[in-house]
Design goal:
single chain; 309 residues; mainly alpha; two-stranded antiparallel sheet; 2 strands; 73% helix; flat
């Protein structure tokens, strides 16, 4: 009896090993990609951030000099200011637009599938070079926007060439791409039990009260998710700024986004050490902002099970 039990355990052990081997074989492509394309470049970038490296000569160790130089660089400070301004305006406006449209599309109406597709489409195209070029043509001095304003006898501006308006055009472009967040909000709205709305209506709640006291609290986990995703996307915006400013970040650094300045330092000025240091500062700031949102979530995100796993 004892011998058969040992054989059974030995057999199970072999089967388990085979399952582990099969699992690791399936994971192998991902592991190779992670080590070769993510972890390896990250470690290399961290090392280069402490060096002076121009892509042609051997990296020279200079310690924290790149980080010290960064905080004395007026263009770096301008790029940080532009990026933070963009994030603090574009992310809330995009989420509010996505939520309002999702609430409207959650109602029963004719052709709702067409409307959902129409509003989602810009998210598929919005990050492309073609849309950035189209956006630039729309807001140029002789673009469609000024032509429409001229029809109403309103004098247009050089929206892209004026430092007061250039960033605004990119914020409008980002807000227009709310489709992905809208779809996630729409899925969240459909998960809210109808009985809660019926109970709130029976208690005499107005539509406004029901929205703020039923819909928003129950949708807060989805808002939390969308907020994190849009924050990460917004702080990395590059294509639209590169195309609209023709890679300069102008006029007068008004569209000099952090990633655009990082690109200029790395691939125009060939200061890869400085660019690597900029990348790590970006990772650090993004990590801090994400942690702040995570820690603050216990005050405004509500889960049906109280957040217990």
């Amino acid at each position: 009896m004892e011998s058969s039990e040992i054989k059974r355990k030995t057999k199970l052990s072999k089967d388990t090993k085979k399952q582990y081997v099969a699992a690791y074989l399936f994971l192998l492509p991902w592991l190779i990609g992670f080590l070769g394309l993510v972890l390896g470049p990250m470690i290399s970038s961290l090392y280069l951030s402490f060096t002076r490296f121009d892509l042609l000569n051997t990296p020279e160790w200079i310690g924290f000099a790149n980080y010290q130089e960064m905080f004395q660089d007026d263009r770096w400070l301008a790029s940080a200011k532009v990026t933070l301004t963009f994030v603090f305006i574009a992310v809330p406006t995009q989420l509010i637009a996505a939520l309002l449209v999702a609430v409207l599309l959650n109602k029963k109406m004719a052709g709702v599938g067409f409307y959902r597709t129409t509003y989602y489409l810009p998210s598929l195209l919005g990050g492309s070079v073609a849309i950035a070029i189209l956006w630039k043509n729309l807001f140029e001095i002789d673009g469609l926007v000024n032509q429409v304003l001229a029809f109403f006898h309103i004098e247009g501006q050089g929206w892209i060439s004026h430092p007061d308006y250039a960033l605004g055009t990119i914020i409008i472009l980002a807000t227009w791409q709310f489709g992905a967040s809208m779809v996630i909000f729409l899925a969240g709205l459909k998960q809210i039990p109808k009985e809660l709305y019926e109970a709130a209506a029976v208690d005499g709640g107005t539509k406004c009260q029901i929205f703020f006291r039923v819909t928003l609290p129950l949708l807060s986990p989805v808002i939390f998710f969308n907020l994190i995703i849009e924050l990460i996307k917004s702080i990395q915006v590059f294509t639209s700024a590169f195309i609209i400013s023709e890679g300069t970040g102008g006029p007068i650094n008004s569209t000099l986004f952090y990633t655009l300045y990082l690109y200029q330092k790395g691939f125009t000025h060939f200061e890869m050490g400085y660019a690597s240091a900029m990348a790590w500062i970006l990772v650090f700031v993004l990590g801090v902002m994400t942690l702040v949102i995570f820690f603050s979530s216990k005050y405004w995100v509500h889960y049906e099970d109280g957040g217990k796993l």
